[in-house]
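FORM 12-B: Structure-to-Sequence Request
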């Protein structure tokens, strides 16, 4: 081996623990970001499916009796 290769190998070996630690941290960060993205996607799909399901349900029709209000407003106008 040439002297350059030996020196480069020594530097690499000296910094190997730091490089491995940095690589592990980056792997954990990558997994966290991907997990959050997958969780957001699943949540969005679930919300969309529920919203579509509820939009297709029949809505109850409610009748409102305005007789008392009309009587009151009619009394005010007189």
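FORM 12-B RESPONSE
SEQUENCE OUT:
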């Amino acid at each position: 081996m040439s002297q350059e290769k030996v020196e480069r190998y020594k530097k690499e070996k000296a910094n190997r623990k730091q490089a491995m630690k940095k690589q592990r941290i980056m792997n954990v960060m990558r997994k966290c970001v991907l997990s959050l993205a997958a969780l957001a996607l699943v949540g969005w799909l679930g919300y969309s499916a529920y919203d579509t399901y509820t939009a297709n349900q029949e809505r109850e029709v409610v009748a409102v009796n305005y007789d008392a209000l009309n009587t009151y407003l009619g009394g005010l106008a007189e």
